[in-house]
Specification:
Elements lengths: L1 H5 L11 E7 L2 E8 L3 E4 L13 H15 L7 H18 L11 E5 L5 E5 L2 H28 L15
Antiparallel strand pairs: 1-2, 2-3, 4-5
Helix pairs in contact: 2-3, 3-4
Length: 165
Amino acid sequence: MIEQFLGTGVGDEIDLDAVLAYGQDAAHRCCIFEGGLQPRLLDGDHFYYSAGIGKKSADPFLRFLVDVYCPSGPPNVREGLFLATWAIEHVIRTAPAGVAGPIRVATLERSPEGEFSTKELRDIEILEHLKIVEKACGVLRDWTGQILSDVEFEGVPPPPNIDDD
């Protein structure tokens, strides 16, 4: 890979990320090549990754999502698609520049015959996940508002209502 990259004539400095998803032994695998193309295999303890200009926004948000939604290990595919869509939507809203929609998400799937292929989610599927994100945010706001109104802070005034401007 490095020889091919250097053969392009861009110089000796290699500072790029590449993601390789593949099937091996009837299982899904993902290997990340970072910086100088050093490989890092994702596993059950290290199962998410962000790259590109939105990485600084994505990494802490992904950590938050994983801490909340994945306390016992990697999510299933449906949960992973939801979390990935939420993280991408977050980066589009918060990255200073260079990240824009539309959101694109793809999966690596195995057929009953054992063959692997990729499948890109349709726009309607992305929209379904974004609606779930919207609902999750609403539930969290409602729950937090209820908790904060029930808690008494000694000598500390309650925080202002988010809806009061």
